[in-house]
Amino acid sequence: MSNKPHPSGGSGRRATASPSVRNTAVALLQSLTRGNQQLTVQINGKPLALPQALALAEQQAKAGQAQTASRIYQQLLEQAADWHREKRLDDAEAVYRQVFEAQPGYIDALHLLGVIYSQRGDHATAERLIRQALRENPRADTYQNNLGKALQGQGRLEEAADSYRRTLELNPEHVLACNNLGKVHAELGQWDKAVAAFRRAVALRPDFNEARRNLEDALRRQSGETDSV
After folding, report:
1. Which residue, 32, 156, 193, 220, could crosslink 185 as a Cys pair with Cβ 3.0–4.6 Å?
2. Which class is 1-137 in CATH?
3. What is the pLDDT of residue 223?
4. Which of 144, 126, 125, 124 is nearest to 134 (CA)?
């Protein structure tokens, strides 16, 4: 996706997917209900049905026009990211899924499918999709953070905390992971650790209002625990 921000922070850059990752991921996708297939997309300023756009990209690739095909896929992913931000999840899913099935090098599309399932509350499926993406790109900090959210959504708090800590190992300035880690510690009643995580988030982004509110609440809870001792 031409390095434009995705709803979850991915870049959309293409990687080389191993055959095992491709086969496992495609099999997983085929087991899931498909999103909206009757979409109209814009390619080079012209409206096309989604299947036509994908066929055009495939045609260009077979003709040796790899850059032209890549531009079509990038435009598709950018539109999917816009729809994702607008909460048009079925539409975004349809594009992410079909781009990945056509070109499994676009690992971020697989990851973003996982994000969509998390947003729908199907955290177990989200975990499976994001783990597949991480197998191909284990140093993707955004993938790791979203894996933590999928685990947290399943109530697997210690595993979620490990995932957020791994995110911060990969990117010490990942402010969302700091805030998410604080929320896990808060759920576990670990107020000292929660305060430390929220303080780190606020230090990284002073205008992060959610982290500030979380810090204030954690400080009150921490003080209450101290007073009760």
Report:
1. 193
2. mainly alpha
3. 87
4. 144
- Please enumerate in sequence order all residues whose Cβ is within 8 A of that of 118, keeping only pairs 6 or more positions apart, or say none: 126, 146, 149, 150, 153
The confidence score (pLDDT) of residue 34 equals: 56
Angle, CA of 159, 162 and 166, to the nearest 5°: 140
Looking at residue 213, its amino acid is R
Rounded to 5°, the CA angle 174-179-185 comes to 125
Which of these CATH numbers, 1.25.40.10, 3.40.225.10, 2.60.120.10, 3.40.50.300, describes 163-229?
Answer: 1.25.40.10
Phi and psi, residue 47, nearest 5°: -75, 135
d(CA 135, CA 28): 14
At residue 4, the pLDDT reads 45
pLDDT for the residue 99: 94
